Amino acid sequence: SPVVQSEYREAHDGHSSAVRLNDVVFALHALVLTAFTLLQVAIFYDYPPLLGSDKVLRIAVVASLVTLAAGSAGSEITLAVSSQSAFSWLDYFMVLSEVKVVISLLKYMPQVWMNYRRKSTEGWAIENVLLDFTGGLLSVVQLVMDAGLSHDWGAITGNPAKFLLGNISMLF
Q: Where are the membrane-spanning stretches (predicted)?
């Protein structure tokens, strides 16, 4: 959005953001796939039938997601209708990107723990690891190349989520 781009330039000495069309398309692609996955979860909500403790966990997860969505929607509405807001759209998106980095880091932990505990990676598809690594590598390479071509190495720190997510994907 022009507003966010303007806020970015103000915050980064007039330099433009390193976010490109392919970054936006990738995010939209992820949104569609996540929505499809959530639709499947909703359709097959209680199949197979859940035990008592699993039902409590499922309800807690749904309640957390609803609370998160409501809080996010509230923040967006506040930003949209307020001319004098406590934070900018850029700040809002930076917070969302930080949340994404933390969630991505945490999502790898159960698999790492299980592999450590079993002292094995049996049953873990290497293809997914290679795809994650390749995607992370290409993402970081693109960010570094964009920064180099624009002679603005601050573009890397201006988009910390892309840099961190790429490195997390390669690390795990």
A: 24-44, 56-74
Quote the tokens at residue 141. Answer: 């390479």
pLDDT tens digits, residue range 45-58?
Answer: 777 777 777 778 77
Q: Which residue carries 């915050």 as its tokens?
A: 11
Q: Both tokens of residue 59?
A: 């309800």
**Spatial CA neighbour of 172 closest among 123, 97, 117, 116:** 116
DSSP letters for 47-111:
SSPPPHHHHHHHHHHHHHHHHHHHHHHHHHHHHHH-SS-SS-HHHHHHHHHHHHHHHHHHHHHHH
Question: How confident is the model over 3-38, as pLDDT tens digits?
Answer: 888 988 888 888 888 888 888 899 899 889 988 988
- Residue position matching structure tokens 């690390």: 171
Q: Could you count the other beta carbons within 10 Å of the beta carbon of residue 22? A: 10
Q: What is the rounded distance in angstroms from the CA atom of residue 80 to the CA atom of residue 50?
A: 41
Taking residue 13's Cβ as centre, other Cβ atoms within 10 Å add up to 8
Measured from the Cβ of residue 139, the count of other Cβ atoms closer than 10 Å reads: 20
Closest by Cα among 171, 9, 163, 145 to 88? 9
Query: For the whole prediction, is pTM greater than 0.85?
Result: no
